[in-house]
Specification:
It contains seven helices and six strands, in the order H-H-H-E-E-H-E-E-E-H-E-H-H. About 8% of the residues have low confidence. The chain has two domains: 56 residues, Multidrug-efflux Transporter Regulator, Chain: A, Domain 2 (Orthogonal Bundle); 107 residues, GIY-YIG endonuclease. The chain is an alpha+beta fold. 29% of the residues lie in helices and 14% in strands.
């Protein structure tokens, strides 16, 4: 019977040649490094555990060179948005308005400012539509991600439109549309009133 060979162990050489004690002490934990690159510590750990961002391991724990992570984040995570001159409704990007005839009749007055949902990098109110009618109104700082969640939850819709606005205006804008449009997939409370971040009677205080 042939002699059993010991298992082969592959040693991965890490990029630590030339490290000094001072360089090692300069490495930061996720809690220390994350604020310097405008990330949450748990997000930075996620990128490290997925082997997406540059990092080092000391006894299994990720450590970070802030300059390396900042360069990586700027190259892979940073996006520039041009913004708009109109501070009332911040429309993202240069997507042309949809044709008026394609819009649900409830949204046709917004034809010059509403867009088909473009990307996740802007807060706004979105409208799920089906067969030419608005069936749900929601808000999100990452609208594309939220729409995918609605698909997975089984909501039926065949078009999505998007009205971007400053984040601190989301509750007011979403609530205004929910109360005005009464979309059937939005919930109602036991009294029959539409559920929205701001009740109908409080919206009058704003106007």
């Amino acid at each position: 019977m042939p002699e059993q060979q010991p298992p082969q162990i592959r040693v991965i050489r890490r990029r630590t040649e030339g490290f000094s004690g001072d360089r090692l002490r300069a490495l930061k934990t996720a809690d220390e490094a994350a604020p310097a690159v405008h990330l949450k510590p748990e997000r930075l750990r996620h990128y490290a555990d997925a082997n997406l961002c540059p990092h080092y391991r000391m006894d299994g724990e990720p450590l970070f060179d802030v300059a390396e992570v900042a360069e990586w984040a700027a190259r892979n995570l940073l996006h520039h948005l041009d913004g708009t001159r109109d501070m009332r409704l911040t429309i993202l990007g240069s997507f042309p308005p949809p044709h008026v005839a394609d819009l649900p009749h409830e949204l046709r007055l917004l034809a010059k400012t509403i867009r088909e949902i473009p990307t996740e990098f802007a807060p706004g109110v979105y409208f799920l539509c089906h067969a030419g009618a608005v069936v749900y109104v929601g808000q999100s700082t990452k609208p594309m991600q939220r729409v995918i969640q609605h698909q997975l939850a089984g909501k039926t819709f065949d078009a999505v439109y998007f009205l971007a606005c400053p984040e601190d205006e989301l509750d007011w804008l979403e609530s205004s549309f929910i109360h005005a449009l009464q979309p059937p997939l939005n919930g109602r409370d036991p009294t029959g009133e539409m559920v929205a971040p701001i009740p109908r009677h409080r919206l009058k205080d704003r106007t």
